[in-house]
Specification:
The longest helix is centred in the N-terminal third of the chain and has 15 residues. This protein has 12 helices and 14 strands. It folds into 2 domains: 166 residues, 3-Layer(aba) Sandwich (Rossmann fold), CATH 3.40.50; 125 residues, 3-Layer(aba) Sandwich (Rossmann fold), CATH 3.40.50.920. Strand 10, helix 8 and strand 11 form a beta-alpha-beta unit. By secondary structure, the chain is of the alpha/beta class.
Length: 310
């Protein structure tokens, strides 16, 4: 991995501009969140395709659904905590149930607004939205994965929820990366155990693999950007190959990536596992890296979870 760090919001915005240049159907809908969504340049270049409804998240999703029904491709962008918390009913009814072509973009998800505390943390969003049938949920880990997901969303007909991370991360993938729903990929191989991660936690999982390798333990690391649908075949293959599995996610352990993996394994291949995330509490105030460390999602904590299973 390259040690230089990058903001996934930049990749998100640059890809949207590129798409908008060739497809006039691409529009953005925001809730006074042009700056936090990094969409100032999009607004400058396409002012007629930037719709700011003010601080009205329910209206924002409804407007997005209306634009979709009129043939546009709306990217509805706001802080993940407010987009999914305040507009849950509209996401359920106007996007998922109606199967409209709305692209929901949750900015600064997880504990990205760390210093603003529990009211701004979005650690429940995956749990809430996984309960909605027909809604694709994507949690990319780096700029290339973010950009590829945005391209796929624009071409896909149907509702999607995308997390766009705030915490700078190194590049893991190159520009040849292609996103496919329901597909993960092995980014490091090893026989001792499997760590499945997404979002900003994938970098930390790879760092944990380096720590374990120094101790003579080689593990498999899997990138799982597609939470819904889940790559069931890959999860089952990893469980069969390594016999132990750890999931790592920046969100509540109840209902998220780990819960999806555990539900699958419980029915089809019971496997010893650990689920790392926020353990059913409101996260305290602090920087995003500190909060991840606090909940054991640092390289040492992930490595310790693996060693517990060995």
């Amino acid at each position: 991995m390259n040690a230089e760090l990058f903001d996934c919001r930049v990749a998100f915005a640059e890809t949207l501009i590129e798409l908008a240049e060739t497809d006039e159907r691409v529009v953005v809908v925001v809730n006074d969140s042009v700056g936090s969504s990094n969409l100032a340049e999009f607004q400058r270049r396409f002012p007629e395709r930037t719709i700011n409804v003010g601080i009205a998240e329910q209206t924002m999703v409804g407007v997005g659904a209306g634009l979709a029904l009129s043939g546009r491709i709306p990217f509805v962008s706001a802080a993940a905590s407010f987009l999914t918390g305040r507009a849950t009913e509209q996401i359920k009814v106007d996007a998922a149930y109606a199967n409209t072509n709305v692209k929901l973009c949750g900015q600064s998800p997880g504990m990205g607004y760390g210093a603003l505390g529990a009211t701004h943390h979005s650690i429940e969003d995956i749990s809430w939205l996984r309960a909605l049938p027909g809604l694709t949920i994507i949690v990319p880990a780096d700029p290339a994965e973010t950009s590829a997901a945005v391209r796929w969303m624009a071409a896909h007909e149907g509702p999607v929820y995308l997390r766009v991370s705030r915490l700078p991360v190194p590049n893991i993938f190159d520009q040849t990366y292609r996103f496919s729903p329901g597909r993960g990929r092995v980014v490091r191989d090893g026989p001792a155990a499997t760590v499945v991660a997404n979002g900003v936690c994938l970098t930390r999982a790879l760092e944990a693999a380096n720590l374990l390798a120094e101790q003579g333990v080689e593990i498999r690391v899997v990138s799982m950007p597609s939470v819904q649908p889940l790559d069931e075949d890959l999860v089952l293959a990893c469980a069969a190959a390594t016999g132990r599995l750890v999931t790592v996610e920046e969100g509540q352990v109840s209902g998220g990536l780990g819960a999806a993996v555990a539900s699958l394994l419980a029915v089809k291949r019971p496997t010893p596992m650990r689920i790392l995330g926020v353990p059913g509490v409101f996260a305290p105030t602090g920087s995003e890296p500190w909060l991840l460390d606090h909940f054991g999602m640092d390289p040492a904590g992930i490595a310790a979870a693996v060693r517990e299973l060995l």
